[in-house]
Amino acid sequence: MGTPLFAISADSHVTEPGDCYVDRIDPRFRDRAPVAATDPRMGAVMEIDNGRNRIPYGMVAAAGRPPETVGPFEFTDWEQLHPGGWDPAARLAEQDRDGVAAEVIYPSVGMLLCNHPDADYKKACFDAYNLWMAEAFCAHAPDRLIGVGQTALRSVAEGVEDFRRIKELGLRGVMMPGHAAAESEIGDYDNPAWDPLWRAAAELGLPVAFHILTSGNDQIGGAQYRGPKMNSFLGIMRGCQDVIGTMVFGGVFDRVPDLKVVCVEADAGWMPHWMYRADHAVKYHHNWLGDRELARLPSEYVRDHIHLTFQDDAVAFRVADLMDHRRLMWASDHPHSDSTFPHSQDVLAEHTAHLGDDVRDAILWRNCADLYGLSLDGRQAPQAQQAQQGRGTDA
Fold it and tell me: Where do the Amidohydrolase-related domain residues begin and end (predicted)?
């Protein structure tokens, strides 16, 4: 292997520990707090809302394991999991092993909690998570563990306060629910009633992120897919695409021009065609489909406002010139099952071989550092050389 490439993951995850929620949650919800358990069939799980759901950690934290060992009913004990999912010191060692200098870190349990029907319960869980993330995880190495907070959005005003609290905690962005708790009263995210929230995000310097699997209609193996179950996997980016279209066609960026939106883990190779198709719709079908007047073409809003993260989407690297490459951000997704860990350096060397140094470095680290205000400058070599020794496929 040649010289390691400097890289920051724009999307990685924790696997929340058993004390993440229960020790910090509003006491009114303590008896319903997510808790760690061992299921006789699945092994390590997080139990949600007194067993309403069980999240199999062996499937969630399957990075580096052979595909034939990954599945919701493959028994995985706690000792088989990546300890960096909850232990920040162990996480730094895992970064070094993978040749990653820093990670923007999202929840795992919190992703699925976005789809929980009880808004008050979501609010309590997200507040507890934000405290744990800031105080127990990111504080260990804030220059390498870049935390993103959560909000339930029971109202616009509460969302603004959540954003301010997230900023005060030192977290660098906000993972949004695909559908806000207050959507039934206020309407979707393009409703101007949400504009104070978007202005607050812009003023606080907090990118708002929409992650796959948080919109209810983008669940792997869920009810809303056609054909064989494998077909459901191809639709998981749809929730993020719908949010992008809602905000672009809804004129949000005309009203709040400094807002930054991150489309997380939905790949990026499809975006040039989406931009073309969106422009085509506005040019040829505005008379009967358009209900808003836009100042610019949809593709222009995407180039200026939409950042996209992706793992091993080789197509995204190939079509970077058809987008604004400054909006593309590579991610490892560690420790999830789609992660490139512990082979990220090998994947990046192959997928970026055709790119010039400037474009490559922008996608691998500079765009992420600029978006989140990170001090890493590309001169600090990750420990990838050492990481190459002893690489394996163990969990």
Answer: 82-374
Give residue for tokens 């836009």: 294
- How sure is the predictor about 236, in pLDDT bands with cuts at 50, 70 and 90? confident
In a domain, 26, yes or no: no
Per-residue tokens: 34: 């997510």
Give tens-digit pLDDT for 72-83.
788 999 999 999
CA 301, CA 259: separation in Å to the nearest integer?
11
Sheet with strand 208-211: strands edge to edge: 8-13, 102-106, 145-150, 173-176, 208-211, 261-264, 306-310, 328-330
The answer, yes or no, to whether residue 380 has pLDDT greater than 70, is: no
Q: How many domains does the chain have?
A: 1
303-327 confidence digits (pLDDT tens): 999 999 999 999 999 999 999 999 9
Q: How confident is the model at residue 108 (pLDDT cuts 50, 70, 90)?
A: very high
Contact between residue 211 and residue 331 where contact means Cβ atoms under 8 Å apart: no
Q: Which domain holds residue 145?
A: 8-15+84-387
In our burial notation (b when 16+ CB lie closer than 10 A, e otherwise), range 294-322 reads beebbbbbbbebbbbbbbbbeebbebbee
Token reading at 349:
């060397």
Q: If you average pLDDT over residues 166-194, what whole number do you get?
A: 96
Is residue 37 within 8 A of residue 54, CB to CB? The reply is: yes
In the chain, what are the helix, strand and coil shares in percent, each to the nearest 5?
A: 45, 15, 40
Looking up residue 338, the CATH number of its domain turns out to be 3.20.20.140
In a domain, 376, yes or no: yes
The answer to whether the beta carbons of residues 63 and 82 sit under 8 Å apart is yes
Closest CA to 148 of 59, 93, 97, 210: 210
Give the span between the Cα atoms of 375 and 215, in whole angstroms.
33
